[in-house]
Amino acid sequence: MLDDEKLGNTSLRLFSVVFIILAFFASLVVPAFSSLTVTQQIQAAGQIASPPNLALIPNDWTYGYYADVPQYVFVDYNVTYNGDPSLRLQPGGGIDDFNLSDRAAWMNCPFGVSVNPGDNISCSAYLETGISNDSGLYGFRIGIDMWSSGFSYDLGGPHSNYVPWNSTWTLVTINFTVPTTNFTENEVGNSIPSCQASYIEMWCQANNANDSGNVWISDAQLYINS
Question: Quick check: pTM over 0.85?
């Protein structure tokens, strides 16, 4: 009977020690997790994905500007970056409505992506350029246009530097915050009713249509962080 009592006491003491150890480690983990916001806790649990890429090639891009004839923008599965397809803009095709020397493609034109003032925009792509007759001029670049509600006014926006002609895959990036102040001028400086940016479009542009080289864009990415 005495041996049974000693055995019971020993088991109780062992259980108490294990409980104290577990409680100690729990005190380290729980406060660290509970100090996160609700969103952060859900993200930590893997229940919220990162913001989606809104510029996937080819699904999120318009091939040229509306009904340009002949067609000059094509999905290219032969020229790829890291296995991703590209858009190829080739010379001798249609020209856009804004500048007769441009070859350009737009993302989701003419609908764009909805944004709010203060949103952080992260944009990037890999660009490759062929051999050009005007190898010392211009090249290929990406940019962002901001638009007012209803696409009433083109408010302009940032763009990358040109990647020179005869360049292999080159990463270009754009990072900016949608202004919280009102616009009173459009892209070219004409007065407009006071408004804020409501939409953005990502674009790529090669100068100019007389150049002989093809250009390619691949692994395009556009993220909006509210």
Answer: no
